[in-house]
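Ticket #393: bound-state structure for S-adenosylmethionine.
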Amino acid sequence: MRLLTVSGVGHGVAQGTQASSEGKTISPAWGKAREGGSELYLPRDRRAAQRGPAARSPVFYNPAMALSRDLTIAVVAAFAEERGHPLRAWDALSATGVRAVRLLRETRAMGEILCTELHPEALQLLRANARDWGGDAMVVEARDARSPPPQGPFDLVDLDPYGTPAPFLEAALRSLSPGGLLAVTATDMAVLAGPERSACERRYGARPLRTYLCREAGLRILLGAVRREALRWGLRADPILSYAHDYYVRAFLRILPARGEDPLPLRSIPFEGYEGPPLPSSARGGPLWTGPLCDERFLEGVKPAGTSADLQGATRLLEILREESGVHALFHYEMGEEAKRLHLSEPPSRGAVLEALRASGWKSARTHVTPSGWRTEAPPPEVARILKGLDRR
Ligand SMILES: C[S@@+](CC[C@H](N)C(=O)[O-])C[C@H]1O[C@@H](n2cnc3c(N)ncnc32)[C@H](O)[C@@H]1O
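RESOLUTION: The complex was predicted; output attached.
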């Protein structure tokens, strides 16, 4: 790839001015830009870059994932606070290195971050970002993330792949120190929550649930797969914050030595004693994680840093996750589904449903999974009674 020496030359980058440090080389395909509270070099052709590996721009950067990075920064800062020392981290699938740059520049949580990548052009951009924005703490290596790097163990490993994280789970889990944090994204929602059933069985050892609950079930399938892989290595993976958003799911899990009862929260749907929202008789799926999606106590310490308008998405999502984590219920209800099932003629608003459920003494909250859904500890007949009472006929 042709490199350009930049010395005060403007290139009209939409989101920032061109780097001007004497003698520093960057490709004309990159420009200085800003995400969150950090400046760094990003591909100029972001539209192409976000489409994935086959797209025209070879270096991946997806601006729509800024929310995932905003939240990661808040979670990692809270985790480091709890851990009591700066974190050694492995950003296994680094691309531009935007996660590492932001963690280093926007938190005081980080010691050293090892950034690995295989794509040659991504590596060039990653190295330029490390040199100009990451300092000595950001170490770049051309390395396959499917095997554990010798620099481990780490306090934090972040897996943010195209599609499935399955090929990288083993290396990540084996690279974490006891009590370490695994951050993992999956964007293969057609597999986790859609029609690609056999791919789901192959990648995650589970069947997707083909109902309105498919996205929450997809998140729980990912959590279950991480949990099972951890058990193979004598470890236990406890979710401390996990969510489904747009076209991806993301989870943060604390990795500890396993205990005897660990396989228990993995179940296939339906299971005996299931008491959640009514499921169609055809609903079959899993095995999946049936425990909590978030750790209520950990969430209290998670605060998005900074004041930028960009953080509104992460702040709102966190607010709902906090509310939701106080309600201990597997699966959420959804108004359209309930209206159909109960033949409601004018379904009430979610606010009215929550008010009525709480007035009857049931812990209930909005769910982050869908704007028309809620989570409640009320048993299904009680939910049905309350919804029918609210029908605005
Ligand atoms: C979705 S992108 C990462 C995005 C990045 N984490 C971010 O926040 O913008 C996935 C990256 O993983 C790299 N990759 C794919 N397979 C890899 C492997 N086996 N080892 C190391 N890197 C790999 C790809 O080249 C690509 O740049």
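RESOLUTION NOTES: The chain has two domains: 52-325, 333-390.
TICKET STATUS: resolved
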